[in-house]
Amino acid sequence: MLWRLNLLLARVLHYGRFRLLLSTLILLLLLGILLTYRWRTDAQLCFMETPAAQQQQPVNMPKILDDVLVTEPLPIPGRSIFFHETSCHRSKRKRPRPGQKSTEMQYNMLQLTARQACAIESAALHNPNFQIFVLFAGPTYHYFGNSSNGSGSGSSQRYQPLIDAILSYRNVQLRQLNLWRFASGTPVENWLNDGPLFRSSFLSSHISDFLRYLTLYRYGGLHLDMDVVMLRSIEDLPPNYTGAESNIHLAAGVMNLAPNGFGHEIAVSCVQDFIHNFNGKDVSNNGAGVITRVTQKLCGTKDVSVMLDNRKRCLGFKVFERNAFYAVPWKRWRHFFEPQLLEQTLAHTKDSIVVNLWNKHSKQQVIKVGSSTAYGKYAEQHCPRSYAAAGEYF
Question: Which pLDDT band holds residue 36 (cuts at 50, 70, 90)?
């Protein structure tokens, strides 16, 4: 009888431990789901309008940038250059309310790095007949005056000198956009509302990919990544082009499409490919992957050398050779920042239209203003006002 009681007790204890383990696992799973949902919700808030964004703000509070869809000057189809800033720079500010001492509001504040300012300025400098639009994803605030492009009196913000530098060009416009309004009436509207974009593991990067193709669908024109330096004008280049990064891959950092006709057909193919092949766990599938797949289908080949040698295969869509935009491959990104490689790098890029600094790998790298590096020489010549405004380091 005693052994039966001991066996029963052992079974009860074992069952109790099993239930405890199972309950713990379920609790951890629910906690993980809750934290993931909370992160996605918080991430979405960066790109959604709050009541504060819809109201007239007090004089001493930040103002929201104007919306690109409704503010003059509007993008000129096929004659505009677009940059997209999809980072989330949230900060808290005290906002007084009637009957309350104060309340804290979170604002996405306008910020630009020296590298971003250089990219924008170089495009404005070399293309005076094009409008340069810097599009901030989500409600973005500033402390400027009331002019439509955001220019106005200075402030104590850290990045103000750089912003003043780019706004000294009359063809630079700073705008914000609402993702859902921007997608309204386009082939990606329903897909965006379904929510797969916000389940991405690389949200900022994939929103940038989403916007580059959607913007080219809306307006045509040129998309540029914010880690480039433009070395010469693109105003006389053909209306539809991209650039090769290797013998098998094209890149999405420099793309131009006409706003109608053949160019718009390519844009339609790009947005359709984006939503059909979207992969939130692959950082490059939705950017370079899209234009690579679309061009391979258009040209009937996966061999980039064939695209270059026989342009008729691509029906007029031009694929520039690697030296045009990506003369220095990503594995050699340090060449831009090493003084001993100055002459070699300048010689290697002497025929380039744009240089790409591969920000994913080089974003922590800075140079001292006045140092003898390839990037320093590019900046001094092609974004002189940003270079001068950056301070000691660039």
Answer: very low
- 50 CB burial (10 A radius; 0-12, 13-18, 19+): middle
Q: 279-298 burial, b if ≥16 CB within 10 A, otherwise e? A: ebeebbbbbbbbbbbbbbeb
Q: Any idea which architecture 54-324 has in CATH?
A: Alpha-Beta Complex (3.90)
pTM: 0.84
Burial of 204 (0-12, 13-18, 19+ CB in 10 A): middle
Domain limits of the chain? 54-324, 327-394
Please state, as a whole number, how many other Cβ atoms lie within 10 Å of the Cβ of residue 248: 12
Indicate the helix (H) or strand (E) that contains 27: helix 2-45
8 A C-beta contact, residue 122 and residue 383: yes
Residue 26 has what pLDDT?
Answer: 64
pLDDT band at 312 (very low <50, low <70, confident <90, very high): confident
- In the chain, the amino acid numbered 389 is A
What is the edge-to-edge ordering of all strands in the sheet holding 172-177? 172-177, 131-137, 80-85, 221-224, 250-257, 241-244, 318-320
